C-alpha cells in the first residue's frame, strides 16, 4: 500500500514535471519568438532599429495572437515566408507622428525567405525588383497592426 | 494618348519561396508545440481562403506579367525642367481584386512618384498598395535608392480618399513621407535629394490584376503637385499610357498588348488622371 502511494506520488511528480517543462517551452516561444530570450538575433529587427527583449507583462497578447493579428493583413506573406516572432521594446528612428515607435512594447514578426515585389515606376530601370525581408510591428498590448517594413 | 505595340515574351519565374518554420526552430519543437504549429498553420490557411480574391477575368488567376514585368495605367510629366524636392497626390480608395501570382505576392497599387531623370534608377513614391492575401490596401511609402536598394514602409489606412506626399527636408536630410499631411516615416541616404521626373500610376504584376476601379468605375488621382522653390505646382501630364507592360530592368520595352486597362484625364485638369480595369 505504501509502495503504491509512493508510485502514485512519483507518477504525479513526473507528469507535473512534464507539464511544467512543456509550459516552459511555450513561454520561451512567447518571449523570444523561438529564440534565446536573453538575446535577439541580428535580423530580428531592421538594422537601424534599437530593440531589446521585453518580458511578458499583464495585458500583453501572446505570440499566437500576434501572428493572428498580422495574418489579417499579411496572410500570403506569413504563408510563404519563414516567420519568427519577437516580443521586444523597440525604437524605430524612421517612424513619426501617430506611428512613432519609441521605447514601445511590440511583437515584431520577421518574415524572411520571400521575394516581395516592389513597385517600379513606368519607364524606370532597376536590377532589384523585390526584397527578401519583412518586419511586421504588432502592438504588444492591443494587438493592433502598426507598421511594416520591407528591405533586403 | 500613345499606344505602343510589342511582342509576347516568356515569363521568368520569381525566386523560390521557402515554406514552414525555419530550420533552426525544428529541433526545439516538442510534440505539443508541433501540434500548436499545425493549428496555427490551419488558422493561417483558413485566413488565406477567407480573403482569397474572386477571379476578375478568365486570365486573372495565376498569370504573371511576362519577365517579371508589370501592367500599368499612368500619366507622366517626365521632365519638369528644374528639379523638385517633393511630390504629392490625392488618391481615391478602393479594395482591388489583385488576383494571384504564381510566386505569390500579386499586388495592385496607386502612387505618385518623383525620380531623378538623369540616373538610371532611384525614386520615391507614396500611395496605397494591396498585396495578394491582404484584407485591404495599406498606405505605402516606397524608397528606391540610386544604388538599387529598396525600403518599403506600410501602415493601415481608412477606406477614404487620402493625400499622399513625400518631400525632402534639407535640414535633417531625410525624405519625409506623409499621409493626410501627417508625417508617418522618414528616410535618408537614398542617393538623391531632388528629381524632375513626375509620374502617377496604377500598377499590377498579374495579368489581369485590377488597376484602379472596375469599368465603368474610375479611380481618381488628382491634385498631383510637385514641390519646387518653396511652393507646390501642378503637374502637367503630357503622357497618358495604358494597356502596356514593361520588362523590369529594361524600361521602355513593351512586352504585351492588352486592352484591360484604361486611363484618361478628368476634365481639363492637367494634374489629374483616372484609371480603371475592364
Strand order, sheet with most strands of chain A: 1-2-3-4-5
Task: Provide mean pLDDT of chain B, rounded.
Answer: 78
Helix-strand sequence of chain B: HEEEEEEEEEEEEEEEEE
**Strand portion of chain A:** 25-35%
The number of distinct β-strands of chain A equals 5
Structure description:
The complex is a heterodimer of chains A (152) and B (278). With 152 residues, chain A is α+β, with helices and mostly antiparallel strands. Chain A is built from 3 helices and 5 strands; from the N terminus they run αβααββββ. A 5-stranded antiparallel sheet of chain A has the order 1-2-3-4-5. The radius of gyration of chain A is 20 Å and the shape is globular. The termini of chain A are far apart. Chain B is mainly beta and 278 residues long. In chain B, strands 2, 7, 8, 9, 11, 12, 13, 16 and 17 form a 9-stranded mixed sheet that branches. Chain B has an 8-stranded antiparallel sheet with strand order 6-5-4-3-10-1-14-15, with no helix packed on it. Chain B is globular. Mean pLDDT of chain B is 78; it is low at 1-55. At the A-B interface, helix 1, helix 2, helix 3, strand 2 and strand 3 of A face helix 1, strand 1, strand 3, strand 4 and strand 5 of B. Strand 5 of chain A pairs antiparallel with strand 6 (150-156) of chain B.
